[in-house]
Hints:
By secondary structure, the chain is an alpha/beta fold. The chain contains 14 helices and 14 strands.
Amino acid sequence: MSVPNQVIDQRAEEVLTQERRRFEERTPKSKALYERAEASMPFGVASSFQAGDPYPIYLTGGRGSRVHDVDGHSYIDYHNGFGSMAAGHAHPKVRAAIEKAAESGTHFAATTKTAVLLAEELKRRFGIEKVRFTNSGTEATMDAVRLARAAAGKDILLKMEGSYHGHHDAVMYSIIPSMDSGGPSERPWTVPFSRGIPAGEADFTKVVPFNDPEALEQTLREEGDQIGALIMEPIMMNIGIVMPLPGYLERVRELCTEHGVLLIFDEVKTGVTVAPGGATELFGVQPDLLCLAKSIGGGTPIGAFGGRADIMDEITKGVAALGTFNGNPLSMGAALATLTEVLTPDAYQHLAKLGTRLAGGTQEILDRHGIKAVTTDLGCKGSITFRDKPIESYRDFAEVDDSLFDAYWFWSVNRDLYQTPGKEEQWTISAQHSEADIDYTLEVFEGYCELVAP
Length: 454
């Protein structure tokens, strides 16, 4: 039986007030460190995504499925470095690889054998022909966009409304536009995400809605002779988790081929998490280029992009793809160990079991308490969307219940669950999580639902 939203939201607001107060009582050392950090870093953090309200939690370390903060709390970690730690924290095999690399030298700005082996493993997993390493997901998408524009000989980039592809200017548009600033749903406007981007940049980035092949077809029919590339997450992960509708990715592939537009899959989040070969393997749709980062590195700074050899070889013909730390031996060693020794077939079976246990158990609790929400199970990755049906495109995101998420975040963290700090994020389960971790998480969620749904 469904409970009216206003009743649930009122109770969620009450829980939020109580739990926010409890949060501040539990974390005085994080508060003190935040006040100190503000004097030397904007928002008191190293990246604006790490900012928190009223302040962020400052961590001291992590091992296995847990992280620890400056106030002495130990949390089961579902944040996992914004999805970078599918291997879990301080995994013995990753540690050993880093230690071995460090013994031989931490940086050369020269390619090592380990980098060659890692490139071969990425080729095997993703069905690509050549690879170039970077230091982050942002660098990977930046270089892939430049390469695609050059290879196609056309300058305009197409992206999906509501998607995030890093913080370089070409993709910093229509990430979280307000519903009244985004334009028509079928032909969204190009809305800048940040100050400091020259106004003229918007002429080179166009926006279309996700899961709408008709809108894409119309745009390509009208402007395809100017559009060099389409960059997209095959599973959209900036507004929870948005699955592609049946046949959608196949149609995107067909349309891009038909109009001479290079298709770039941003698999920074999905690569090696939703399947060994990411969403490319999961759906069987091969892009021209794909971008990787986060969990491929076992917690070290790394990115990569790769694809068809004829496109990648444009790098040898004047397309810049540079970086002093590209192929850094520490990152190469950690990544190779992660992909060949940690994220093995057995690990993916373990992640699938835990993901189903968490998502299925969460959905059962929601349904039993009459709370309108849906869960998504992708093994390592998953999410709760506080909406009565799955999201299909960015405009649906406005219907997600903020109150229910905000209260649950504070409820969780006060009971030693470390979660991503926004309703647009997802959980990440690591290879070192256990069934006991999942069962405790469900117990905490049950307690929350009992409070907000009378």
